[in-house]
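pinned: reference chain
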Amino acid sequence: MGNLSLHRVINPLRLLLAASLLVATGGVHAQPPVSPFSLDYRLKSEGIPFSITATRSLQQVQGGLWKMEVRAQNWLGEIRETALFNWQSCTPQSSYYGYLRKGLGRVKEAKLHLDREAGVAASERTGKDMLSYPISDAATDELSVSLALQCALGEGKQEFYLDVADEKKQEQQHFKVIGHESIKVEGKTLDTVKVQRIRADNSQRQTFMWFAPSHNFLLVQLLQKNNDGEHVMTLQSLEGL
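pinned: its structure tokens
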């Protein structure tokens, strides 16, 4: 945390780490299961006296192809993460994922190409050899996980398993609804569904997400607990929703 050697890609499950870095072919929906958006979130990390703003956006770029993007920046640098995918039921079926970090005269980049026909993902990272590994037909990327959860919650599901590909491997991630809580956004109270990522018993990391049923289960807040403390991402405004 707090230095530009951090190499992990920002997404709804890792965006908070990047915030502290900046301080130092089945049925395709006729209508998308998640509507386009562009929203600002406040990022706050333990031990850091100020917050950083990140913008999450979703847009249709052509035909059935969709683009998810997260951008965060301050005077020290900028981080951008992008995913391209097609909706397959509730799964963002990824074809590309890219990460770019600039700051203090350094540039770090990662690209992940997911070949559905071959069942293989190819990863390129700055300073690393190209890596390839097998993927399932249902594989999504880390950035698009929250969209898959948003859609699944809208269908009434309470427990979710997702095949998620990153720059190193594919793993199956397990999520579960664990309750309901109220969260304030701009002084207004939103009723939310609380989801936890279920990890191994010996894991020192915890991840929680809150989604608003009244706004198509939009992601309202994310909390990441690590050895270095708590990191929180919270929706800043309800404007335009």
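why pinned: The chain has a mean pLDDT of 86. The longest helix spans residues 145-154.
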